[in-house]
Amino acid sequence: MIKVSVVGAQGRMGSHVVDAVNAADDAELALALDAGDDLTRITPENTDVVVEFTVPSSTLGNVLALIAQGVDVVVGTTGWTDERLEQVRAALAKAPRADQSVFIAPNFAISAVLADYFARLAAPYFESAEVIELHHPDKVDAPSGTAIHTAQGIGAARAKAGLGAVPDNTQTDGGSRGQVVDGVHVHAVRLRGLNAHEEVLFGNAGEQLVIRADSFDRGSFMPGVLLAVRKVASGEFPGLTVGLDHFLDL
């Protein structure tokens, strides 16, 4: 049995993780902690993998503390930057265990991971590309980590293919055209009734390709969370891994 502790256990996502761990045949809940609880209660003796689902302002400190305590971590909180990821890598280089693992997921929904993968495959074949992400208004970051990750993948694929800048002659200060991530415009919609949705739009003269992923319920993320827990617990992925695609046969 994989002993799993959850940090952020009373949150919207954390409570679903607790239920998913309790329902899994190969995992058991060790500790369920929330804001203000003492993370030093989590140790290698009582926990194999920690699932961290909190808020962007807290997640880096939580992850660094958990690394120092010698436990493996699966992170679902978004808001990660290159600088923050480098701090995690530096902490892992000094971790108590040489094979210690941190996994960070821009998105745990299999549909979203596949949409991101398909977008990278399609990117070299289209002149234009834009990303639209749509979420409930309680989400604290914009654009979403998923959309940023998708745009980065598109930008890298376009650069590798030798494509130039996406055409755009709009005369504006940029505010209404969304955030530009590696040359790709990313637009964030916040609307009551939505959960988590992403559209990737590709265009050439006379044609368009739309890739869309919809998560209608937070339960859709749980198979991905459990997959990450199992992969991290296997010990086969030491160091920092970003993206659930590394755990899928793509």
UniProtKB/TrEMBL annotation:
It is found in: Cytoplasm. The active site is at residues 135, 139. Keywords: Amino-acid biosynthesis, Cytoplasm, Diaminopimelate biosynthesis, Lysine biosynthesis, NAD, NADP, Oxidoreductase. (S)-2,3,4,5-tetrahydrodipicolinate binds at residues 136, 145-146. NAD(+) binds at residues 8-13, 34, 76-78, 105-108. One of its GO terms (molecular function) is oxidoreductase activity, acting on CH or CH2 groups, NAD or NADP as acceptor. Its EC number is 1.17.1.8. GO terms for cellular component: cytosol. One of its GO terms (biological process) is lysine biosynthetic process via diaminopimelate. Pathway: Amino-acid biosynthesis; L-lysine biosynthesis via DAP pathway; (S)-tetrahydrodipicolinate from L-aspartate: step 4/4. It comes from the Bacteria. It catalyses: (S)-2,3,4,5-tetrahydrodipicolinate + NAD(+) + H2O = (2S,4S)-4-hydroxy-2,3,4,5-tetrahydrodipicolinate + NADH + H(+); (S)-2,3,4,5-tetrahydrodipicolinate + NADP(+) + H2O = (2S,4S)-4-hydroxy-2,3,4,5-tetrahydrodipicolinate + NADPH + H(+). Residues 2-108 form the Dihydrodipicolinate reductase N-terminal domain. The keyword Signal does not apply. Residues 115-248 form the Dihydrodipicolinate reductase C-terminal domain. Catalyzes the conversion of 4-hydroxy-tetrahydrodipicolinate (HTPA) to tetrahydrodipicolinate. Homotetramer. PANTHER family: 4-HYDROXY-TETRAHYDRODIPICOLINATE REDUCTASE 1, CHLOROPLASTIC-RELATED, DIHYDRODIPICOLINATE REDUCTASE. Belongs to the DapB family. This is 4-hydroxy-tetrahydrodipicolinate reductase. It comes from Bifidobacterium choerinum. The lineage of its organism: Bacteria, Bacillati, Actinomycetota, Actinomycetes, Bifidobacteriales. The gene is dapB.
